Every structure is written in C-alpha cells, then in structure tokens.
Amino acid sequence: MGRIEGEASTEIDAPIEAVFAVAADVEGSPRWQPEIKVAEPLERDGEGRQTLVRTVTDGKVRDLESRLRFSYEEPTSIQWSQHKGDLGAVDGSWRFEDLGDGRTRATYWMSVDLGRMLGLVVRGPVVDLLRKQLVDTMHGKLKGFVEGQAG
C-alpha cells in the first residue's frame, strides 16, 4: 500500500485565466491548501513563475518535505514532479478546460509513492486520510477559493 493515486474534476464559475492564475501561484497555495505549511520558491522562470519549490506538508504521521519541479502551459495545464524529498515519488497536474460563459473545468491528478519507510508506517485509515487530503478534496478547495475571490 505504498502508492496513493487519483484524479478528480469540478466546474468552477470563473474564467480559465483566473483559475490558472490561482493554481500557478504555488507560493500562495497555503492560502487555500491548509495542509501545506511552507511553499518556498527556490527558482523562477523568466515570467516569474515558480519552477522549483520547497514544500512542507502535513503528512498526518509527520511533516513531509519535498522539492517540486513545476512546468506550465498557460492557461491549460500545470505539471509537477518531486525533484528531491521525503517521499519515494510525487507527480501531479492540473488541467483546465474553458467551458465558455466564464466557466472552467479543473481536473486534478496526483500520484504519490510513499517510499519504503513511510509505506511501512502509513496504513489503513491514514492512507484514506492522505488520499482525501492529497487528491479527493483538492479540486473542491480550488473551486471554493477561486469562487470566493470572484464573489
């Protein structure tokens, strides 16, 4: 049970550019992702977007540190992979689809390999809590934050 993976989508009442801007602000992600304790940019691209970010996340059993490498295809997608960190591997993405009339479909995908040591500790209900935190609720958090800003 060393892997947590999943995908979830939602429709957001906001234009694709606004949704992308919130998701691409990795440094500001703790404002709408309370499990992220630190999101410190270490490198930026020519447009000022965060390309390497040190994160510290509440892992339920202990805090988990990662250095995540980000790439952007504005305004339709964001991808990331763990460059270095406490987990075996982390890969994720946001995909955005313009639905017209100022609406956007946001699809979140995440795959986490807990690694050998953490995989031995994280079992049963804790895996379910992490899946909920890392995958199942993320699209709703983005939706709530973006729509709250627009309202």
Topology:
Blueprint: E1 3-12, H1 16-24, E2 36-44, E3 50-58, E4 63-73, E5 77-85, E6 89-100, E7 103-113, H2 115-121, H3 125-136, H4 138-150
Antiparallel strand pairs: 1-7, 2-3, 3-4, 4-5, 5-6, 6-7
What descriptors fit this protein?
alpha+beta, 7 strands, 27% helix, single chain, seven-stranded antiparallel β-sheet, Alpha-D-Glucose-1,6-Bisphosphate, Chain A, domain 4, 151 residues
Count of discrete alpha- or pi-helical segments spanning 4 or more residues: 4
Quaternary organisation:
single chain
Content of β-strand: over 45%
- Label the structural class: alpha+beta
Overall pLDDT metric: 86
Task: Describe, in plain words, how this protein is organized in 3D.
The chain has helices at 16-24, 115-121, 125-136, 138-150, and strands at 3-12, 36-44, 50-58, 63-73, 77-85, 89-100, 103-113. With 151 residues, the protein is α+β, with helices and mostly antiparallel strands. 26% of the residues are buried. It is globular. The longest helix has 13 residues, at 138-150. Strand 2 (36-44) and strand 3 form a beta hairpin. It is 27% helix and 47% strand. The chain contains four helices and seven strands; from the N terminus they run βαββββββααα. A seven-stranded antiparallel beta sheet has the order 1-7-6-5-4-3-2. It has a single domain (3-150), classed as START domain (Alpha-D-Glucose-1,6-Bisphosphate, Chain A, domain 4).
